Glutamine--fructose-6-phosphate aminotransferase [isomerizing] (Aliisedimentitalea scapharcae), 364 residues
Amino acid sequence: DKGGHKHYMAKEIAEQPHVIAEAIRHYLPVGDDMVHLPGDGIDFTKVQRLTMVACGTAYYACLTAKYWFEKIARLPVEVDVASEFRYREPPITEGTLALFVSQSGETADTLAALRFCQDKADKIVSVVNVPESSIARESDLALPIYAGVEIGVASTKAFTCQLAVLLMLALKAANDRGEISAEDLADHVSGLRGLPNTLNTALEQNDAIQQAAQHLSEARDVLFLGRGVMYPLAHEGALKLKEISYIHAEAYASGELKHGPIALIDQHMPVVVLAPRDALFDKTVSNMQEVMARKGKVLLVSDKDGLDEARDGTWITIQMPPIMENLTPILYSIPAQLLAYHTAVAKGTDVDQPRNLAKSVTVE
Ligand code: M6R
């Protein structure tokens, strides 16, 4: 049942305010500002290092979480794609918490990486959408994301629910380790609780994004730029576009542009810049101006302050509501997903069943 939508992907994008509210309610029960974990939970005072392993979109959720765990909880984090992790034979030292993120819980490489860690890490934790899955069952602790069944091959609501759960986990780590003030914790908690509303406001940009996608669908290649906590989302935006529209897309940290990829820029190259008005915004604007000086077409996604400051010379703008910096990757997932979705629809591809892809990759 597509619930009146043309595709499961559209339905799943639209469901995000609701499912994220579910996820948040399970970990942050109403009336309590402490993050609660199921079962024995995790005592982060004993954790010295976090090793995160996943594939595809779940890997980009891990990369985003690295920014949170390091910045908010001051906990060192390593992130790896599952297909590389095990073969590198990484040393797993005492005090390591191994964290596996998987929507299906059946991804062969992620499961193999989990088994590699089983007698080496202090604790194996997974963040999964399917609680009965192999990865959940073989973990010491499984943290459900409550996204509900995801049918579209391109992951959308599972990604944002993974992010919400990982951010709550980072807040728990920060609190256990005494790295966050009560005030800062309360700010994050109220930001999270307000998130479903903010996501609804972002979804109202659907028509504007659909129009932008008409133009994007004519491109052969697209670049995505982001920096800081938005850099992994640039990768996720590029992956989404590749998967369903078959347009070649790549992501770079904004500051890396001048170290090579700027050579690609000409009037045929759309560059999607995911840039809320944050502490690094001015630097991103100067990267963007380098693109425009070479006739590159900038599609800027930002908030009102950011657009007021940097709209001049851009090709297309999409406005997001303002939100605290650590929540921007969750909010800006909406335009990234909708842009890919509408571009694919404009190209007439099979959005829910893109060629060559399977929902669950159970071979290594
Ligand atoms: O089920 P998993 O989260 O372990 O799947 C990992 C990847 O195969 C998955 O995220 C894939 O990249 C999606 N098609 C992304 O949209």
The longest strand covers residues 96-102. The two ends are 32 Å apart (CA to CA). The pocket of 5-amino-5-deoxy-1-O-phosphono-D-mannitol is lined by residues 55-58, 102-104, 107, 110, 153-155, 243, 357, 360-361 (CB under 6 Å).
